[in-house]
Amino acid sequence: MKLDVICLEEDAFFALIDQVKDYLGGENSTPKKWVDQDEAMQLLNIKSPTTLQEYRNNGVIRYTQPRKRVILYDRDSINDFLEKHAKNTI
Predict the structure, then answer these.
(1) Where exactly are the structural domains of the chain?
(2) What phi and psi, each to the nearest 5 degrees, are found at residue 39?
(3) What is the DSSP secondary-structure string of 51-89?
(4) Is there a contact between 73 and 35 (Cβ–Cβ < 8 Å)?
(5) To 5 degrees, how large is the angle CA 27–CA 33–CA 37?
(6) pTM of the model
(7) pLDDT higher for 63 or 13?
(8) Cα separation of 62 and 67, whole Å?
(9) Staple partner for 73: which of 12, 36, 40, 81, CB 3.0–4.6 Å?
(10) How does pLDDT run across 17-31, given as a tens digit for each residue?
């Protein structure tokens, strides 16, 4: 097994780190306000689109429909829903 070692000067190393952070969105990037169905289901930890539709129909989480087949969900209302159902531990 052959290992290649890459040596960088300190300034070059930190410049490379800054480029990677910029490419990935930086450490201070804010999450998107509106998320698609897949991300909403992931945030809610649900697997069924029917459950998500039920939440939408019952007014549990906010959504917008900018086009006929595009439905986006409000990340803040999802977080509020999760906080509302959070249980405090002793």
Answers:
(1) 34-84
(2) -70, -40
(3) HHHHHHHTTSS-EEEEETTEEEEEHHHHHHHHHHT----
(4) yes
(5) 110
(6) 0.65
(7) 63
(8) 16
(9) 40
(10) 888 877 777 555 667
Residue 74 near residue 82 (C-beta atoms within 8 A): no
Residue with tokens 């998500």: 52
Token output for 21: 């952070």
The end-to-end CA distance of the chain, in Å, is 52
Chain centre to alpha carbon of residue 73: 12
10 by DSSP, 3-state: which?
helix
Q: Per-residue pLDDT for 55 more than 70?
A: yes
**Token pair of 14 as six digits:** 């930190």
CB 42 within 8 A of CB 82: no
Structural tokens at position 6: 């890459």
Rounded Cα–Cα distance for residues 14 and 4 (Å): 20
From edge to edge, which strands make up the β-sheet containing 63-67? 34-35, 70-74, 63-67
